[in-house]
Amino acid sequence: MDGWAHYLTPTAAQRRLGMVCLGAGHKREDDPCPPRVLTSYAAVFVVEGRGWLEWGHGPRRAELSASSLFWLFPGVPHTYGPHGAGWQEIWLLFEGPAAAAYEELGYLSRSEPVVRLADPFPARAALDRLLDRCRQERPGTEVEAAHAVHSLILGVRNSRSSQDSDGDTAVLAALREGACRPLSVHEHAHRLGLSLASLRRAVRRGGGCSPKEYVLRIRLNRAKELLAESDLTIAEIARRVGHDDAAYFTRMFSRRAGMPPGAFRRQQRRPRQPSAR
C-alpha cells in the first residue's frame, strides 16, 4: 500500500454546523480491507481498477469498477478490496446530523450503497477539492472540508447512473403540476397511470419523501407565494392550493410554517407604491 492520508478533529462549534469530515486520503491498495464496523459514515471512490464490496449481516456483495463510489454506514459490517493487480481509491470519513438527514432523504442508501456514476466529474472534483483542503491545513480547513462533503453527496446524487432517474423526474413534474388539485394520493396515482406503490417509490427516489409530503410541500410553497404577492383572502388561497376547509388550512400552515398565514403575510408583504396618475 502507498498513498496519503490526513485526519481531522473538529471543534464543538464546527460540529454544530451539522456535518464534519473526520479524514480523507488517496492510496493504491493491493489487499482487502479486513471485516470491520465503523462508527461514522464513509465513502470510497474507485479511481482505477476493479474489486468488490460485501456489507450487512447477509452479507450482500457487489462488484466494483473504476468510477464506482460506495457509501459505508455506521454500525454496518463490511469488507471490500481489489481484484487482481490492485486499485487506486480515494476515501473519506464523515458524520453529523446532516449526514443522517441525507440518509433519511434517500441520498445515501444502506440497501444500495454502490453508485455507478454516469458522469464521475462532479464527484471527483469534490473529492479533489477535499484532499486539497486537507493537505493545506490552513485556518478553516475543517469547515471547507465539510462543505466538500456536501458537494460530494450532491454531485453523486445528480450524476448517478439510474434507469429510473428520467422516469422519476417526469413523475415529480406531473405531481407538481397537479399538486394543488383537491385529490388524494390514490387519485394522483390513478391520474398518472401508476400503482400507489410505484408512485411512492418514484417520489421517494426523486424527492426523498412520501407523495403526501411532496404534495403538501408544493401546496405550502404556492400558498406562501400567494400570501406574499396577492390580495386574496386566506380562504381563497386555501381553495387555490387544494383545501376547501380554511380552518384546516390555517392549522396545517401554522404547524408547518411556524406561524399563522396572516402573520406570514404581514412579515413578507412589502408596502405597495401608489400608482402614478
Automatic annotation (TrEMBL):
Residues 258-277 are annotated as: Disordered. Residues 169-267 form the HTH araC/xylS-type domain. GO terms for molecular function: DNA-binding transcription factor activity; sequence-specific DNA binding. This is AraC-like DNA-binding protein. InterPro entries: AraC-bd (IPR003313), Homeodomain-like_sf (IPR009057), HTH-like (IPR037923), HTH_AraC (IPR018060), Tscrpt_reg_AraC-type_HTH (IPR020449). Keywords: DNA-binding, Transcription, Transcription regulation. Pfam families: AraC_binding, HTH_18. Residues 266-277 have a biased composition (Basic residues).
